[in-house]
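User: Before I run my own analysis I want an independent prediction to cross-check against. Here's the chain; please return only the structure tokens and, at the end, one sentence I can use as a sanity check.
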Amino acid sequence: MEPARAFLPVLSGEALLASLFWSNLSIGLFNLLPAYPLDGGRVLRAWLSGRMDYVEATRRAVGVGQFFALLFVLGGLLLRETWPVVIGLVVFWAALTEEKVAVLQSAMERIYLEEVMLTEFQSLAPGDSLFDAVERALHSLQDDFPVVSEGRVVGVLTRGGLLRAFSGQGWNQSVQAVMSSRFETAQRGDTLAAGFNKLTARGLSLLPVLENERLVGIVTLQNLLQSITFLSRKGAAEIESLRRE
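Assistant: Structure tokens:
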């Protein structure tokens, strides 16, 4: 086969195998470029992470990736080719997004639940009625409640559980009869990331926060998401200042 025929379009029936070979080889070599977030860039970040802070390693890998991205854009403009420009822009913005995610994850590992937990909340006792639960929900605008007996958390009553109970036997049931014993707890010294992982891993909406087995606060999926949203809107410099506190 003539060398030039190997570069025929992929859909060419004359050189389909050769075209597929060169296409896959080109994609593989492109992916090995140390341009984060390509695979080569991730290898570069892993290598840098052994020598410096994870966030700083990500930032440097992102810088290298954006350098290559700008080269693609410049090359595409000079050659008047569209695809290099598109690829360069995609790599540039993907690298920027990855940097923000890395900084956010790092901040979540350095912010503790005691800083974001709700300390003013309502709790229920196992002997309370569902009418008591509804009354407290209306007066506190709280959807989910820890159920406490003799100072210990013994269950959780969520809004969904409350609604399901009403569709069954109605108001006269006790909280103990409808509460969920499937719940997780956290310590006030746990990180925001750890709390978020506990909630999402089991599909929970409420996480009681304990200190020496005593209930000192609660975190809900809603208020953790608000904290994460707040962090995501901060600039990298502001989040870095949170990391150092």
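Sanity check: The chain is about 55% helix and 10% strand.
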